[in-house]
Every structure is written in structure tokens, then in C-alpha cells.
Amino acid sequence: MKITPKNVLITGGAKRIGAELVRAFAAENANVYLHVRHSQKEAEILAKSLPHPERCRVLTADFSTPGEAAKLFAQCGKVDILINNASMYEPNELIHGDEVSDREHFEVNFWSPLALLRAFAAQELPEGVAINLLDQEVLHRSPNGGAYALSRRVLADATRELAREYGQKNLRINAVAPGPVFPPSWIPDGTMAKTIATLPLRRKVNVDDLVEAVLFLCRNDSITGQILGVDCGQSLI
Predict the structure, then answer these.
(1) Has this prediction a pTM greater than 0.90?
(2) Domain span including residue 191
(3) How many structural domains is the chain composed of?
(4) Average pLDDT of span 47-74
(5) How many CB atoms lie within 10 A of CB 225?
(6) What is the pLDDT of residue 190?
(7) Which is deepest, 47, 94, 99, 121, by most CB within 10 Å?
(8) Strand arrangement of the beta sheet that strand 7-10 belongs to
(9) What is the separation of C-alpha 47 from the centre of its chain, rounded to a whole number of angstroms?
(10) Is residue 176 part of a domain?
């Protein structure tokens, strides 16, 4: 699929990987719907910094609330490319978790992306592509993944299943599973460095490589139902 002049919805697009994806699609002259939960100020600043700010529209929705994802999609008009990037992550063990937090993880990390994928498929497009941003947890299980890891694995399974179901509509559904790129703000000093030291490539993932993987999956019309690990080999250990 040619990215120009397609309409792209990027969830969680104000910061970190989401912001880099917004910049990349904007550089391809796509029309961007930039979704945020709380970071509207950062999103507005990002939109104004793009080569064509008029091609970027900021939308807000709280995916922890059932039904919000479908309402968000209804505001967009036609969406040719869907990037499910928004997520919720709190480290915990299932045995020490609580139902409220577990349900919120699944609402944000699975049910809302699924609602967006269903709305995306209901458009009856001549062609379309959706990319789910997952986590190395779906390829390489680590301790303390908790509800976060479970919710990402369910979305990984849905990626493959929906690719099978929607293929006849010429819709491609793929996913990218990143390794360490940006450390969470709460992570203890040195923890990410310890993880990187165990990777076969002994380095963190370059965010530009991650973005390029997403663009590649959008452009390649023969790939569907795949989960691409961009993890510097983390899934091998």
C-alpha cells in the first residue's frame, strides 16, 4: 500500500514511540488522526511541529472506558491505516494483582484495539492495513508480566485470527513486538542496561528501526498475520 495520501489513525501518539510514528507518517504526507488519553498539550505541540500541521487532527479518548474506542473511530471518517499503539503497563504478578487493575489492562490493551479493528473492517475499504504494537512479552516471557503480558498475548492471537478472517476483504493485519526502546519513567536506574546486556546484539532497539518496520508492514501488500520481533534478539533468549 502506498502511504501517501492515506488517512492514518495512530493511538497513543503524543509521546515516545507513538510520537515517532506520527512524525514518520506525516513525513510520508499521510493525513494523521493523532489519539491521546491525557497528553493533549503534548499532542498539539507535536502536531504544530509537523511539515503540514493541517493534515494532523488531535482526538482524545480514554480507552479504559468501554465504548470509547468505537466513539473515537466514528470521529475519524475514513481510516486506511490503523496503528494500535496505545497501551497501559503496570508491572505486577498475577498472584498479587487486583481485579480492577487487571480489567483496566485488558480494556486498554485488548478490548479497545479489538473495537478499533472491528470498526476499521466495517468500512468496506478496497484495501487497508492495521498494525498492532505489542511487546517482546508475546515472544519471550519474562517474570512479573501479569495482566499486561496476558493482554498483549491475547491481542497477538487476535492479530493472526483477524488476518485470516479479514483477508478476503483485502485487509491486512500485522503486529510488531519491540524489545527495549525507551525505559518507563519509573524503572530503576540500571535495570534497562542489565536487560540490554543479555541481548544477542547487546544494544537497545533503535526507534528508527522500529518505525521503519511499521512502515514496511504497511507497504508490503503480501504480508498479513505476522508478528515481527524488533527486539535485538530478545526473543531468542
Answers:
(1) yes
(2) 7-236
(3) 1
(4) 97
(5) 16
(6) 60
(7) 47
(8) 56-60, 31-36, 7-10, 81-84, 128-133, 171-178, 227-230
(9) 19
(10) yes
